[in-house]
Specification:
Number of helices: 13
Radius of gyration: 22 Å
CATH architecture of the largest domain: 3-Layer(aba) Sandwich
CATH superfamily of the largest domain: Type I PLP-dependent aspartate aminotransferase-like (Major domain)
Shape: globular
Helix content: 25-40%
Strand order of the largest sheet: 2-8-7-6-5-3-4
Number of domains: 2
CATH class of the largest domain: Alpha Beta
Largest sheet: 7 strands, mixed
Strand content: 5-15%
Distance between the termini: 54 Å
């Protein structure tokens, strides 16, 4: 071998890659095959009927009998869509915070000219419904027009109790709308829009709905639509009314639809709603989440590895945020380079650019994954902990396997 040619570096990352980030999630082959087709006729034919079929199934996923709309965009687009349809410039919105996605929603609200009040609960515990109710009782002039609630904050992995927040709003006798961000939780966790009293629900296609990023959804009830009457933030593009039961197909999207995404979404909804059933989808995610928690609880070591959310009842079934002081980035990079396993970055858990940002990572366990997939992800993490000499307790994989064996 020539001396100037570097020796080959062995790696186990060749072969199937696993995307264990909290969205975009792994795309099923069936969804990708459904999208792999020439562009369809957008004026008549199968695309029109296919689109009509999506709306009832989207409502089944969100558990609502009210309205569902589809926008071309990401989660930020859904934030703007819901606020534009329900608010006027100068309105006050209350945003309870359990992670950085509340900050993002607040930024969009300010950009629309709304006033924002934050109730900060930190990054590790759920929202205190009683504290929200107390703030509404103080609002004698009823200036607060909406309470903007992130069900599961994808950065912190904190899950909050939506039904309890609705109960507090009602007990306060306050007319504020409750608008709920379900980006991480739709089709991964139990969510009941109508039964829990949400007026607006927003979500995207790239997480629990297993479709490549590019579409978002806004579900809204009649009460929210009444707020639309006086909303001066709404524009022709964001207006949800023409998109709801449109008389002309192109009004679903205010122009050309996301054609290939619609084919993919149709296949994903068939898999979730028709074949598996939403109760089973929720149960699968709950079991896989418990397996993840069991592994990390076994691995936890003082001053080293630690689950961000201590209370199991407040942990997401879709994503788990982990604290690993100084070594979170090291572990992510080793898993990607040596195992073909991509873990999520720590997001919003420390000031941007600070050294502390290297001490966090996230494991996404949402969408198209099985017990086998989950055990492979956990095995890759355990191998990385050992390879990097990171202090951790024994028995993580055994603890996870026990959860799956008992399911």
């Amino acid at each position: 071998m020539r001396d100037d040619i570097p020796a080959p570096r062995a790696t186990l990352s060749h072969g199937p890659q696993v995307l264990a980030i909290p969205g975009p999630s792994i795309m099923p082959d069936r969804v990708l095959r459904a999208m792999h087709r020439p562009s369809p006729n957008i004026y008549q034919g199968e695309l029109i009927e296919l689109t009509h079929s999506l709306i009832p199934d989207l409502k089944r996923v969100a558990r609502t009998d009210y309205n569902a709309t589809i926008y071309i965009g990401n989660g930020h687009a859904s934030w703007e869509a819901c606020l534009a349809n329900t608010h006027s410039r100068g309105d006050l919105v209350l945003i309870p915070r359990t992670g950085s996605f509340a900050d993002g929603w607040a930024e969009v609200a300010r950009g629309l000219g709304l006033r924002v009040e934050m109730l900060d609960f930190g990054n590790r515990i759920p929202m205190d419904a009683a504290a929200i109710g107390a703030r509404l009782r103080e609002d004698h002039a009823q200036e607060i027009k909406s309470v903007l609630v992130v069900h599961v904050d994808t950065a912190s992995s904190v899950r909050s109790d939506i039904a309890a927040i609705r109960a507090e709003i009602d007990a306060a006798g306050h007319p504020a709308l409750m608008q709920v961000d379900c980006m991480a939780s739709l089709a991964t966790e139990r969510y009941e829009m109508d039964a829990w009293g949400a007026d607006v629900t927003i979500a995207g296609c790239q997480k629990g709905l297993m479709t490549p990023a590019g579409m978002c959804f806004v579900f809204y009830n009649d009460r929210a639509d009444r707020a639309r009457e006086g909303a001066d933030c709404v524009t022709n593009y964001w207006d949800w009314r023409p998109r709801t039961n449109p008389d002309i197909y192109f009004r679903y999207f205010n122009g050309t639809g996301p054609t290939h995404h619609l084919y993919g979404l149709r296949e994903a909804l068939t898999m979730l709603v028709t074949e598996e059933g939403m109760e089973n989808v929720w149960a699968r995610h709950a079991t896989l989440a418990r397996a993840v928690w069991a592994a990390f609880e076994a691995w936890e070591a003082p001053g080293a590895l630690e689950l961000n959310v201590r209370d199991r009842a407040a942990r997401s079934h879709a994503v788990t945020a982990v604290r690993l002081p100084q070594r979170g980035t090291d572990l992510r990079e080793w898993c990607a380079g040596q195992m073909g396993l991509t873990l999520g970055i720590g997001l919003g858990m420390a000031p941007h650019g600070s050294p502390e940002t290297a001490g966090f990572f996230r494991v996404g366990h949402m969408g198209h994954l099985s017990g086998h997939t989950m055990m492979g992800t956990l095995g890759g993490i355990q191998a990385g902990l050992g390879a990097l000499g990171i202090a951790h307790g024994p028995g993580g994989l055994d603890a996870a396997a026990k959860v799956l064996a008992q399911a």
